Amino acid sequence: MRKIIGAAVGAVALSVGGLAPAAFAEDTAGEAFILAASPWKTLDTGPGLVWTPGLEHPSELSAFDGPTAVDLTWSGEIEGASLGTSAETTDLGAAVVAGDVIRVDFELIDGASPAAGSVRLFAGVGAAPLLVAAAPADATGSGSLSLTVPADGTVGHMGLVYDTSNGGVEGTVRFTDLTVGSEPVLFVPPAAPTIAQPTCDKPEGVVTVPAGTGYDYAIGGTAAPAGDHQVAIGAHEVTASLDAVVQTWTLTADEPTGCSGDDDGTDDGGEAGTDDGGESGTDDGGESGTDDGGESGTDDGGESGTDDGTESGGDDGSPSPTPSAGDCDAYVGSAAWCDPAHGDYDCSQIDDAHKPVQLVDASNDPFLLDSDDDGAGCEATGDDDGSGDDDGTGDDDGSLPDTGTGGSLLWAGTALLVLGGLAALFARYRRSLTS
């Protein structure tokens, strides 16, 4: 049995809504990647006759190039790197059985040399001495290194070395595809994605996929390149995959609370059911049904039916403007009745034969003869003739018209005089009969 992580179907799942440390799963050989129990590090350190790394100097030049590759770069100008550089883990934590092979490929870059056993692989199984394999001194270009496990046990300390203690050459050795018993070893686990929670101003969450990890990420099954990705409120499954290994996180975007306007579930319901309904059903209805209706039916109606009617049908009492010599020209055929020297005219001063008076321009009425603004003045109805006679009868004799009120009183007085006279005659007749 080997201690491994990331089974082909995704044995690793992180806690809902957060990031929990990855847990190891026990599985059989050949079904998963191996992830070290203690993280791999790149170091500048010095070997002895047998490699005894100090693990005390992090490397300035060496670096992992994705999950399954590491570049070991040595330069004489780097302090503390005078004896070499390495990539190591103090505890791989992988179970092995006798006969298992540990293998890694290498490539010499930028003049790196394998002379004097400088390119090496080492592993410690249980309490046994380190197993060491070195590239041939005459190796060129690229090659591979391998070790055979002599007994059952667990691989603890393990490393890859570019040793320059014997006067090595500056350059880079790239190690790739390290396997233990045919199971790939991951130098770098998939970096965990992060999530920024929604806020009152930004109602969506943001999942950030890390860059440069060498894994393929997906959110909800959709490929997600490195960078920020907006997600809706709720749970989202994020996966990182490399060939057969899949690691899964479940990240949750929570609905924001305490926002202005009560954005949580309880308050939103109140707003939608009570406040918003009241505004729509009461306030808006009142404005539409009461205020607007009142304005339209009462104010506007009053103005149209009362004020406008009065202005259109009667004299507003305002004086006519000061006449000018050209005022007569504002009326069609005015030469027959209009004397420029006369001054102002009203309808009672114009003979009926010339009525109605047509205006040349309905907007120009210097004598104010057209009170209803229809382009014709002194009409039988609708225009004020200036004499107070609005009945349009054409009474031009200058006398006040009989409106019916004075006539009725005259006839009533006459009737009383007649009745009084008759009563006096009757009384005289009775006295003559009794004398």
The fold-level CATH name of the domain at 36-186 is Jelly Rolls
The low-confidence parts are: 1-31, 266-317, 385-405
Using the alpha-carbon principal axes, give the shape. Answer: rod-shaped
What is the H-and-E element order? EEEEEEEEEEEEEEEEEEEEEEEHEEH
Which second-level CATH architecture of the domain at 36-186 applies? Sandwich
Largest sheet: 9 strands, mixed
How far the N terminus sits from the C terminus, by CA atoms, comes to: 167 Å
Number of helices: 2
Find the structural class using helix and strand composition. alpha+beta
Instruction: Report the strand count.
Output: 25
**Helix-residue proportion:** 10-25%
Q: Strand fraction band? A: 25-35%
CATH class designation of the domain at 36-186: Mainly Beta
Mean pLDDT: 74
Explained architecture:
The protein has 435 residues and is of the alpha+beta class. Among the domains are: 36-186, Jelly Rolls (Sandwich), CATH 2.60.120; 194-253; 322-398, no CATH class. 18% of the residues lie in helices and 30% in strands. The chain contains two helices and 25 strands. A hairpin with an 8-residue loop joins strand 17 and strand 18 (205-209).
